[in-house]
């Protein structure tokens, strides 16, 4: 037997809720239907049905959203902020950690005499 109480434990963040369907009925009205529980006497399911005229749908939706907005939102997720905004910054940090700080003037860090330009004069043959 488990000592977990599904009805009183604060760890339960989503309580059970019957399924809800929204569709247009044959008259074009908006029907909100919630799955019912099994009635033990006739042994059948009795759904809850609400019919809304289309011209009232926006007001109903706004009223639902207003009630939902009045409920305090949960706090932010406890995830750390990202250390950088781009992959390039991440790659720079990775290279700096692997190779040490980058205080070089060139890509290869050394310039040899062979790499420097040498001026010479080209003359046509005599």
SSE blueprint and pairings:
Layout: E1 20-24, E2 30-34, E3 38-39, E4 44-45, E5 48-52, H1 57-70, H2 87-99
Antiparallel strand pairs: 1-2, 2-5, 3-4
Q: Estimate the mean pLDDT confidence.
A: 78
Estimated share of beta-strand residues? 15-25%
Order of helices and strands: EEEEEHH
Order of neighbouring strands in the sheet with most strands: 1-2-5
* Span between termini: 109 Å
How many individual helices?
A: 2
Structural class: alpha+beta
The gross shape turns out to be: elongated
Number of strands: 5
For the biggest sheet, the summary is:
3 strands, antiparallel
Round the Cα radius of gyration to an integer and report it: 36 Å
Helix fraction by DSSP (H/I, runs of at least 4): 10-25%
Residue stretches low in confidence (pLDDT < 50, at least 5 long) are none
